[in-house]
């Protein structure tokens, strides 16, 4: 299976983010945004 094309991307490096336990994780920068943050993609 490939990366989800609809996934949000990292604001720092534009890599696709992975959703893990209510957090969006960048493969390079780690956790970028948490679901409790008011910021929405």
From TrEMBL:
* InterPro entries named in the record: HVO_2523-like
Q: Which NCBIfam families match?
A: HVO_2523 (NF041914)
Q: What is this protein called?
A: HVO_2523 family zinc finger protein
Q: Organism, per UniProt?
A: Halobacterium litoreum
